[in-house]
Amino acid sequence: MSILDWLWLAVRVLAGAGLGLLAGLLIGRPWFGVALVLGLQLAWQLARLSRVVHWLRRDRPEPAPDFGGLWGELVTLIVRLHRRRQYHKSRLLRLLRELRRSTAAMPDGVVVLNPGAEILWFNRTAGRLLGLRGKTDVGFRVENLVRHPEFVRYLRGGNYAAPVVFRPAAASERYLAIQVVPYGTGQRLMLVRDVTREVRLEALRKDFVANASHELRSPLTVISGYLETLAEDPALGAGHAEPVQEMRRQAERMNLIVRDLLELSRLESSEREIEGARMDVAALIAQLRRDVAARPEPRPSVDVVLESGADLQGDEDQIHSAFRNVLDNALKYTPPEGRVRMRWWQDAAGGHFAVSDTGIGIAPEHIPRLTERFYRVDPGRSRETGGSGLGLAIVKHVLQRHGGWLEIQSVEGQGSTFTCHFPPPRLVASPPATAAPGEAAGTVSQPRRLTAI
Ligand code: ADP
277-431+444-450 falls under which CATH superfamily? Predict the structure, then answer.
């Protein structure tokens, strides 16, 4: 509405008031005439307003009242606004319908949860996999319907980095993987997948490796035994001595690979964290140091820094194997004139065992793949040094089963640091009785540097 229209309206009102004033003068009551005309104008405007309100209140669409001027413009604006809203609404509805149709047809199950973990919606696959029923189960808390303890722990835990895999019922042959994806304000999306086939294949693979390794052990022991006897036989011709020695070395390598494969199979037999028992870390490190001292020279010098007297709660054999693997690698990949350092310390993040070396180091592109089975930076060198290629895979699994993780830092040509991190609940403070003489009873974090070897 332009300024001219407003002016025209004002002129009309004023003209009406003027006429009313004139008519009032004729009867000797000028203000009565003005009031009457303004009153009539007001009544006319109210009548239009009432028609607009009546039109807006109608549920069914009805042609808009055809007013001119100010009221006509108001009605046009309302109609335009309404049409725009209708357009967006129907577009949204169409999108929503399409979204629902596509998620309903998805091969994976989808469940939408509100912040209170109550089911808002689920598709057909989720209903079939989780045994949810169409109308009755909407609005119920999901943990009351899917009661498996592992799922409930996962849902409440809030750590949704990886899916949880479980058997929905003890008698069921089926395995389900559920991945929760948080979105919006506290809402969660649950993706449900039937992973029975994958779980079975994985179990088959693990069984195969375990059985094959087990079956190989006995013939290998026999071969190694005969080769040893043969190597010590004085009647062995000079031409055969070297090949027999090589056969012994290779048989020893095979023994090592079989041993490591069996150890990995044992570690993989369960995903659960190991509870274990209290183990003396200082004693374990001292043992590792003694083992290194017994090795033939030349080899890098090893020194130990014990900054914590805390012990660990875990499986002693497994932790020994993990620490030994990391230390063996440092010795293997460091030249004799280099240095290796073992360090054990604790802080708010837990307990940490690090082995640093001044060896050949590792290029950054290899670091993320080092814990894969049989991954070697330089396969030739690894074989030469008698490595099975499984050492770091074992370390990773051992740490995982203790709630910990392996950190690898390295600079090619300068050296590496492999750190085994353990979470705080795995630490056990050293009892006062075991404190070394001269040390304040119960103090566990006095830095203690042990002699280098
Ligand atoms: P391997 O038996 O071959 O040593 P591992 O799984 O223990 O197998 O290690 C995998 C690879 O990681 C090794 O082949 C080697 O290339 C590299 N690596 C491990 N530790 C070190 C280290 N301290 N310095 C340099 N490279 C290392």
Answer: Histidine kinase-like ATPase, C-terminal domain (3.30.565.10)
Contact yes or no for 228/244 (Cβ under 8 A)? no
CATH superfamily of this structure's domain 107-194: PAS domain (3.30.450.20)
Whether domain 199-268 has CATH 3.20.20.70: no
Summarize the confidence of residues 2-31 as an average pLDDT.
88
- How many angstroms is it from 44 CA to the middle of ligand 1? 94
Q: Where are the domains of the chain?
A: 3-99, 107-194, 199-268, 277-431+444-450
Whether the CB-CB separation of 396 and 403 falls below 8 Å is answered with: no
Q: What pTM did the predictor assign?
A: 0.67
Which residues form the pocket of ligand 1, taking CB atoms under 6 Å from any ligand atom? 325, 329-330, 333, 357, 359-360, 362, 370, 375-378, 382, 387-393, 416
From CA 429, how far away is CA 34, in angstroms rounded? 98
Winning range, highest mean pLDDT, from 30-34, 165-169, 195-199:
195-199
User: Tens of pLDDT along 183-219?
Assistant: 988 899 999 999 999 999 998 999 999 999 999 999 9
**Best substitution site from 360, 382, 383, 408 to test ligand 1's pocket, by max atoms within 8 Å of Cβ?**
382
Strand boundaries in 114-258, DSSP class E: 119-122, 164-166, 176-183, 187-194
312 C-alpha to ligand 1 centroid (Å): 25
Distance 249 CA to ligand 1 centre (A): 20
Task: Round to whole Å and give the CA distance between 99 and 93.
Answer: 10
Average pLDDT on 101-120 reads 89
The fraction of the chain above a pLDDT of 90, given in percent, is: 61
The H-or-E segment that residue 319 falls in is helix 316-332
pLDDT one-digit tens code per residue, 404-451: 999 999 999 999 999 999 999 999 987 654 444 433 333 334 445 555
